[in-house]
Design goal:
The chain is of the alpha+beta class. It has one domain. Helix content is about 15%, strand content about 55%. It has one helix and five strands. The chain has a five-stranded antiparallel β-sheet with strand order 1-2-3-4-5, with no helix packed on it. The termini are far apart.
Length: about 90
Amino acid sequence: MKVSTAIIFAIIFFSASAQVCNTIGSEIINCTDSEGRKQGYWKLTRKVIDLRWHSGLGSKEGCRYGESAHYLPVAEGNYKNDMKIGEWN
């Protein structure tokens, strides 16, 4: 019994595909699978930098960079195996 259970878990473990996703609030978006292909719901955005600065020249901490930015939505829709499917806004 223990051996068969271990074999089943091993099969599930090695056949599972890992996904990496972004989470905004409770929404899971922009997932890529273990092969780097886009999967599921995606929101494409464009980063707009409002302000950027450099500081700390000559200090112990060295140079520092900072920026203030916001993101503009460009498109949203679904991917399956790195291909757009369905209707996109």
